[in-house]
Amino acid sequence: MDKLDLIKFYFNLGLAYKDILHILSRKHRIILSLRTLKRILKKNGLFRRIHFDSLEETVGFIKEQLQGSGALHGYRWMHSKCKENGLHTRKEDVRIILSTLDPEGTEIRRSRRLHRRRYFAKGPNFVWHADSYDKLKPFGICINGAIDGFSRRILWLNAYFTSSDPKVIGGYFLETIKELDGCPRILRTDMGTENSSIREMQRFLRRNDDDDQAGEKSFIWGRSTANQRIESWWGFLRKECVDFWLDHFHRLKDEGDFVGDFLDKNLMLFCFLGLIQVMLYIDKERNRL
Asked: What is the three-class DSSP state of 22?
């Protein structure tokens, strides 16, 4: 995509101007001033809070979404889907339309509110949660990520051909502590061997500290399903991104175009790894808003 297409794409995702400039600079090496960005948007008729799309278009889009997995979405999620598909509409309008078109679903979502476990972290970088996400692993693509327990900031989110190599996971950890100029007080992961390198790194970096979590206590093992913060993020990522790729890959498998051998998995990596990493990058940047 050229510069204008990139600006339109990120604008339609609902990103703030400063975040569009940040992604253009970091990801695409396109340096623009805020004034230049606003001038380009104005020239191409892209405005915020000036005009909204008609209710008829919004109703039509929501009706279409309700025919599929959109029937599971609440109004906040549906409003995000509207923005991602280029529809400028008010969140309150989406709520009213959704409750009118799908009153039964709205009532079910309202009555089945979860009583979530309480989570506590003392502050930013007090505890980081790291884990691997293996839903795409049968197709040769492995995802690994980490999240700050207090701010819920995504620290790294990467797709690669493996998430089982301690050196690869260690590289993600080192890149992050270099970027942030520090490590967490506590690092929590599951008991997989892929986390052996970051375990030793974390304990080494905290070996000379004198707080209650220094040294050996700065790293915590635990079951993956109990790693609450990152598991919650994986649920969000599946709805936001992974379900689309799972449906696409299973369709290839059902049609006989993917049998899971070495060649097929490497073709999947060649064709889709870059696209999935871009989507993960966008989700990571959106998480910072």
From this structure: helix
Pairing status of strand 127-133 against strand 154-160: unpaired
Angle at 73 between CA 70 and CA 78, to 5 degrees: 80
Strands (E), the chain: 127-133, 142-148, 154-160, 186-188, 219-220
At 66-124, the pLDDT tens digits run: 877 677 778 888 888 887 777 878 888 888 888 888 887 777 777 665 445 566 678 88
What is the distance between the alpha carbons of residues 127 and 112, in angstroms, rounded to a whole number? Answer: 31
- Quote the tokens at residue 258: 């993917």
CB within 8 A of 207, min separation 6: which ones? Answer: 214, 215
30 within 8 A of 2, measured Cβ to Cβ: no
Give this prediction's pTM: 0.59
Domains of the chain: which residue ranges? 3-43, 62-111, 116-289
Measured between its terminal Cα atoms, the distance across the chain in Å is 24
Each residue of 211-246: b (16+ CB within 10 Å) or e? eebeeeebbeeeebeebbbbbebbeebeebbbeebe
Domain 116-289, architecture per CATH? 2-Layer Sandwich (3.30)
Helix, strand, coil percent values for the chain (each to nearest 5)? 60, 10, 35
Query: For 141, phi and psi rounded to 5 degrees?
Result: -120, 125
